Amino acid sequence: MSSEHGTSLVPHKSHGSRLRSVKRTFKRFTKKVLGWVLMALGFVLIAAGFVLIIIPGHYFLIVAGLILVLRNAMWARRQFIHLKRRHPNWIMPIRKLLRRNPQILSVMWQQTLRIERLIVRRGSHLKLFRRRFFRKARPA
Predict the structure, then answer these.
(1) Which positions of the chain have pLDDT values less than 50?
(2) 47-50: long-range contacts, CB 8 A cutoff, minimum separation 24
(3) By the 8 A CB rule, do 97 and 65 touch?
């Protein structure tokens, strides 16, 4: 039937399907490049957050950088999950800030209380040190 007229029964790829294939490949490539660029920007933000540690509120640069890196790098997600399981108390504030609706004020308040607790503990050690080594001499 169709072989009499010079056409085959197997349809050949049309120009439109090749164009779709090229578009799909280009879209994948641009998505990958954009992911790498966003990941690099995330690392720059994290580094800037550590460099600008003297400025109040530098944590937001670090958190924004972490968001960009964790969204674009699977190895970073795996490492973050590993840290989350190993040190849950350290990672908890970062996890709260990475949520869609972050609880910024509660995280800041909890971290303030945590730092205060560390300072008070150190102060109590100093009191013990003073009591032990700076006692008044006992009369003989």
Answers:
(1) none
(2) none
(3) no
